[in-house]
Design brief:
The complex is a heterodimer of chains A (316) and B (510).
Chain A lengths: L1 H27 L4 H6 L5 H11 L5 H13 L13 H36 L4 H15 L2 H15 L15 H35 L2 H8 L4 H39 L4 H10 L3 H29 L10
Helix pairs in contact in A: 1-12, 5-8, 5-10, 6-8, 7-8, 7-10, 8-10, 10-11, 10-12, 11-12
Chain B lengths: L1 H22 L17 E6 L14 H7 L7 E3 L5 E3 L2 E7 L4 E6 L13 H12 L16 E7 L2 E6 L6 H4 L22 E7 L3 E6 L12 E6 L3 H10 L4 E5 L1 H5 L6 E7 L2 E7 L9 H10 L2 H9 L4 E2 L24 H10 L7 E7 L3 H15 L4 E7 L1 H10 L5 E7 L5 H5 L16 H12 L3 H17 L4 E5 L1 E7 L2 E2 L15 E2 L2
Parallel strand pairs in B: 1-10, 1-11, 15-16, 15-17
Antiparallel strand pairs in B: 2-3, 4-5, 5-7, 6-7, 8-9, 9-10, 11-19, 12-19, 13-17, 13-18, 14-18, 20-21
The chains are: A mainly alpha (316), B alpha+beta (510).
Chain lengths: 316, 510
């Protein structure tokens, strides 16, 4: 209970700090929403009038507090660029990005853990070098490049999905998920390769520990020890790492969304930043902060289930 | 046990891939391109999202390009650069350009079904002129010249405070319903297409307006798909998701299959130049500016960065402006490194100098141009450094505050007046970001505005262009080529001297 309270408090604090820093960053960089809106037709008079209308002529702390008050009371404001309520604007994009990230996360988890164990078996063989090289390659190739290759091969040649024509997630769920599936693979490859590498070295480390030697000397075979003891002991670091992965996927989605033409949060965020659309950016940043903290918390909770030593205050 | 789990997971993964593979067409041969529901639709790829849908508040050229199909003014431009009556059925100019009398066309309908009435026209003009409430700034600065607007019956009389021959070009401003406040999210106009929906960062859908007063559009539905990624646009065309994309680069075009697409070439109708801040050293010295003009080889830029596509320019005017354009200025400064060095020596920079070029990094053509220029300037001993900035920073620092040394951009005109292109170099102009300051030019501009005879006015504008060239106000480069990839079968693409895409003339021809 105490732990949950602490976590929630930390979550709220993180979100407040992040939103404040975002506001501050906007204050420091040049350009404001009024300038972005008027573009090359700005005159000093029109700028002044629009700034007044948007409330930008108020001092920085006043603006921040009024935004915060609105946010807390559930009023996320109106997008300067789209003239529509921020939530209405964000909700459909959030669905798409969540779908993409979850799909990618499931793929990473499903692929990398078996692959790590499998690759451990090959340690020391000639094939190991090939495997290592391939793993390095997967980690190094940037998603935008694999994205271009994949959408060319699976989209243009194989025609499994139509690049540039992302269907509506709500009406065309199947097709949309197919489209997202390839984007998710592309998003997940580097992270999956990292997970394999991390997991593999953890397993190797565990295998050299004394308890493994003892277990083997008591007549267990290596495979049995691996699956029964070593895997369980390696799992906590994997969970922590996957928690970070979940947090990072949403960052990586920005690039992948661009390449696959998926209208998600990432593209909206980039566009809103360059248009200085504060209300949208603020809300997005808070959502992202929430996501990151949530991923960490979930990883912690799962780890406590796996490893009783990590439980705080509870019975050991 | 664990092995089984592993196997199950692997099988699941494969199954997902298989499902995804079969999801589309259940084992049939995949279609060559995306199947169209009817031949009455077209999907057009655009590289950026729209800004405000309210035509009076929209600023981005890309927005006007799309919404040109939705809105109309009292008059509207044609593809050959003339103005024809639209919401008005007749226009007469009286008193040498002091009074403009419009007769409203009967029975013009808004997309919401209402008929256009005098109050709507009055509202629209007043809104743009800042006359709806006291002390409001005009949305269109040139409309500050309006002294009086009178609407009686179906006759609208606009009296100006001084004669102005170009006023009519500003009457292309969109006529909107007076009592409608959803313009920014669900715009209503009188054009051949009506707005249907918009999904941020995704698409804008237009549909034919069947009660249109003029020639009806040929297509039933037009979808503008927003794809910012350069290669994404190409793949969209290849996959069949898109049928037409404007403003492509030669590299993009070369990836397309000739059996599926053809390319139509127009021009962007903009003045791409290395714009110089005339108020900072060393560009306050005309000799230095001239030296730059000699040092930079515009044909070289066009060949290097644009594969030879583009029309070299020598002043702030492009060819589609017809009578205003003076071709003899294009080669006023031939590429001549020796001459450039000589001028630099005279100006006190025998060993060259260092300069910066601020470039909006989201416009790849300008970035490419900057890179070629940097190389070209080395020959003359000038060391140029590129400062890439974000578009909004560019607007604020370069365009707004003139905090720059030189920059590369393309300036367009949203109406057919030479004034729009030339006014900004006048000392008084609010958008004179190059800080060009020359009393002679200001005097010419005042004369041009006050002229009551079209031929005389044109002559003065041409003098102003020559003035800009002779004084090397900026290093003019080119009017960039507009390469449009069009799917075979799509016909009727028309180029305008403005930055617009008229979809009402497009049709499928099998």
């Amino acid at each position: 209970m105490k732990y949950a309270l602490k976590r929630i408090l930390m979550l709220v604090l993180t979100m407040v700090i992040v939103s404040f820093l975002t506001f501050l960053a906007f204050e420091l960089i040049s350009g404001d929403p009024a300038e972005a809106k008027l573009g090359t037709e700005a005159t000093p008079e029109r700028l002044a009038a629009l700034r007044h209308e948007m409330g930008l002529d108020r001092p920085f702390p006043v603006r921040y507090v009024s935004w915060l008050a609105g946010f807390v009371s559930g009023d996320l404001g109106t997008s300067y660029n789209y003239d529509m309520p921020v939530w209405e604007l964000i909700a459909p994009k959030l669905e798409v990005t969540l779908c993409l990230c979850l799909l990618s996360f499931v793929l990473i988890t499903a692929v990398s853990i078996p692959l790590a164990i499998w690759s451990y078996r090959w340690t020391g063989t000639a094939f190991d070098a090939v495997r290592t090289a391939f793993n390095q390659l997967c980690m190094a190739v940037p998603p935008f490049f694999t994205g271009i290759l994949m959408s060319y091969f699976f989209g243009i040649v194989m025609r499994l999905f139509i690049p540039g024509d992302f269907p509506d997630l709500r009406t065309d769920f199947g097709e949309a998920v197919t489209h997202l599936f390839f984007a998710a693979i592309c998003l997940g490859i580097p992270r999956a390769a990292m997970t394999v590498r991390m997991m593999r070295s953890t397993v190797i480390g565990e295998m050299q520990k004394a308890y493994v030697r003892t277990a083997i000397s008591r007549g267990n075979d290596r495979r049995g020890v691996l699956t029964r003891h070593v895997l369980k002991n390696s799992l906590t670091s994997a969970v922590t790492f996957l928690g970070q992965t979940m947090a990072e996927l949403i960052g990586g989605s920005v690039v992948v969304e661009q390449v696959f033409g998926i209208p998600g949060l990432g593209r909206l965020l980039v566009y809103s930043i360059s248009n200085r659309d504060y209300p949208v950016v603020e809300t997005l940043v808070v959502i992202l902060a929430f996501w990151v903290v949530l991923a960490g918390t979930l990883a912690d909770l799962i780890n406590q289930r796996i490893d009783p030593r990590l439980r705080l205050g509870g019975a050991v | 046990m664990k092995k089984k789990i592993l196997a199950v997971i692997l099988v699941l993964g494969m199954l997902m891939a298989l499902l995804a593979a079969c999801g589309r067409k259940g084992g049939e041969t995949p279609p060559a391109v995306k199947e169209r529901t009817t031949a009455n639709e077209i999907t057009i790829g655009i590289a950026q999202d729209l800004d405000s849908l309210d035509p009076h508040l929209a600023v981005a050229a890309g927005t006007k390009e799309v919404m040109f199909n939705v809105f109309e003014g009292l008059v509207k431009p044609t593809s050959d650069g003339n103005l024809v009556p639209a919401v008005a059925s007749n226009v007469s100019v009286e008193d040498g350009g002091l009074t403009y009398v419009f007769t409203l066309r009967q029975g013009v309908k808004f997309h919401n079904g209402k008929t256009v009435e005098m109050q709507d026209v009055l509202y629209s003009v007043r809104r743009c002129a800042g006359l709806l409430e006291d002390g409001a700034e005009p949305l269109v600065p040139a409309l500050a010249v309006i002294a009086d607007i009178q609407g009686e019956g179906d006759t609208l009389t606009i009296t100006l405070s001084e004669p102005n021959l170009e006023f009519l070009a500003y009457m292309t401003l969109a006529i909107l319903p007076a009592d409608y406040d959803q313009q920014a999210t669900a715009p209503v106009g009188t054009g051949p297409f009506k707005f249907v929906s918009r999904a941020a960062q995704d698409n804008v859908v237009l549909e034919r307006f069947d009660d249109y007063w003029g020639t009806p559009a040929k297509l039933q539905k037009v979808t503008f798909k927003i794809i910012e990624d350069e290669s994404g646009l190409v793949r969209g065309l290849q996959s069949g998701a898109l049928d037409l994309v404007s403003h492509m680069t030669y590299t993009q075009i070369s990836q397309l299959d000739k059996n599926d697409f053809h390319v139509e070439e127009g021009s962007m109708n903009l003045v791409q130049a290395l714009y110089l801040n005339n108020s900072v050293k060393p560009f306050d010295d005309v000799r230095v500016r001239q030296a730059l003009c000699y040092a930079i080889d515009k044909q070289g830029i066009i060949d290097m960065a644009f594969d030879g596509y583009g029309i070299p320019l020598g002043t702030s005017m492009f060819p589609s402006f017809g009578k205003y354009y003076d071709d003899s200025l294009t080669d006023y400064y031939p590429h001549d490194v020796a001459k450039a060095k000589e001028l630099l020596a005279q100006a006190g920079y025998p060993n060259g100098f260092e300069m910066t070029i601020t470039v909006p990094s989201n416009y790849q053509p300008h970035v490419d141009t900057a890179q070629v220029i940097v190389e070209q300037l080395k020959e003359t001993g000038i060391t140029a450094t590129i400062i890439p900035v974000e578009w909004d920073t560019w607007l604020s620092d370069v365009y707004g505050k003139s905090e720059f040394q030189s920059t590369i951009t393309g300036l367009t005109s949203d109406n057919m007046t030479a004034r729009k292109l030339l006014e900004r170099f006048n000392t008084q102009a609010g958008n004179n970001f190059t800080k060009y300051n020359n009393p002679k030019y200001d005097e010419l501009f005042a004369q041009a505005v006050a002229a009551t005879d079209d031929a005389a006015q044109t002559a003065i504008y041409r003098q102003m262009e020559r003035h800009l060239t002779e004084n090397a106000a900026n290093v003019y480069i080119q009017d960039m080529a507009d390469l449009v990839a069009v799917r075979n079968g799509v016909k009727g693409l028309t180029f305008y001297p403005l930055y617009v895409l008229d979809v009402s003339t497009l049709y499928w021809d099998k």
